[in-house]
Amino acid sequence: MSQTKETSILTIEPTDHPTPADKRKAMMANPGFGTTFSDHMVVIHYSEEKGWHNGRVMARQPLPLDPAASVLHYAQEIFEGMKAYRSPENEILLFRPEENARRFRHSAEVMAMEPIPEEIFLDAVHKLVDIDRDWVPDGEVGSLYIRPFQIASQPFLGVKPAKEYIFAIIACTVGSYFKDATKGVPIWVSENHVRAVPGGTGTAKCGGNYAASLTAQAEGYAHGCAQVVFLDAIERRWIEELGGMNVFFVMNDKTLITPPLKGTILHGITRKSIIALARDKGYTVLEQPYSLDQWREDAKSGKLLEAFACGTAAVITSIGKVCDTHGDFEIGENGANNPVANELRESLINLQYGRAEDPYGWVKRV
Ligand SMILES: *Cc1c(COP(=O)(O)O)cnc(C)c1O
After folding, report:
1. CA angle at 83 for the pair 8 and 176, rounded to the nearest 5°
2. Would the pLDDT of 5 be above 50?
3. Which residue lies with its CA nearest to atom 2 of ligand 1?
4. pTM above the 0.90 mark?
């Protein structure tokens, strides 16, 4: 998958102060999420005259940025989230990276930014993971979280699409996102805030969507909830997704329901993979609207057995309790009993970690 030296626009400049192995191992023993960074980064520049140029894999360091850089004022920024996994055979694996490259292009188009060619994106991911492969942990749950992002770096204060961009990738060793993924987490239903509106930026992975979700998240935390589920902006009735994860409902007739991708929901790669895995296991998967009222009713009647959220960072997380101002309700014995979520999680991570045969061609070696 990675390009040959001749066609790659990246030069490789290994750091002259790599983290010593014993220190790295100590850092990786308890990495947390998003704080244990690897030694290198990728930086590629874009200008109208030169196109994508000056691509480097180099020591991780601060980005020099003019204070007028338009990202700091008008938020032209997009990102991706993906992971590298270590297989039992000690191979380093990526999961459907070309899907991230394609979605990054889509996000760029939504935000009127110059899209980076998908082959440059993939080459850069491969080269960073390769040089920092010692930061990919072994064991059951850890991985190297990869964060490609792009910012408008042109120094000007006019409101228009920038003509200069920086594309960069950083990476960090991560453990599990939630403490115990098999236990259900309580989630808060946001009634006062929405995440995305029709015609807005909901299908782009842009920082602005996250900034706009933080008041709702703070409200959720204040009510003892780990995450927020957002309703549609117009009727405030239909479940859309969490701040950074898609959502599935498991019914008692071997059917899974997930909200349809109608312009306000992020096209999750985990979501897409779960739909394929579940269908191959004999589940019916319906991409159809599901309302909060229905959710409450089905949880109470027993028609709904489980609900879970999914995304690259947290994989599959069961929802134990749903809280809002109209009264809380529990799902599947407060999330203690999630056989379907557990079955799907096992299948997914066995593929991602190279512990199972991959009939889909999803796994790419670095
Ligand atoms: C990243 C993200 C997801 C999950 O996408 P994956 O490709 O599965 O990681 C879901 N919703 C939102 C809003 C996201 O930003």
Report:
1. 160
2. no
3. 244
4. yes
| Atom 13 of ligand 1: nearest residue by CA position | 244
Q: Are residues 78 and 213 in the same domain?
A: no
Test site for ligand 1: of 111, 248, 312, 315, most ligand atoms within 8 A of the Cβ: 312
For 112-161, what is each residue's pLDDT tens digit?
999 999 999 999 999 999 999 999 999 778 999 999 999 999 999 999 99
| Pure H helices in the chain | 21-29, 71-74, 97-110, 118-131, 207-211, 214-222, 269-280, 292-301, 332-335, 339-352
The answer to which of 271-285, 328-342, 350-364 has the lowest mean pLDDT is: 328-342
- pLDDT at res. 332: 81
Its domain, for residue 306, covers: 185-352
Atom of ligand 1 nearest to the CA of 269: 7
For residue 361, tell me if it sits in a domain: no
Block residue for tokens 């980076």? 116
Identify whether 117 is part of a domain. yes
CA of 221 to the centre of ligand 1 (A): 20
User: Do 163 and 246 fall into the same domain?
Assistant: no
The mean pLDDT of 280-290, rounded to a whole number, is 98
Which ligand 1 atom lies nearest to the CA of residue 99?
A: 7
Mean pLDDT of the chain: 94
Tell me which residues have their CB closer than 6 angstroms to ligand 1.
81, 205, 241, 244-246, 266, 268-271, 311-312
Tokens of 167: 């594309």
Number of domains in the chain: 2
Ligand 1 mean position to 80 CA, how many Å? 9
CA of 246, closest atom in ligand 1: 10
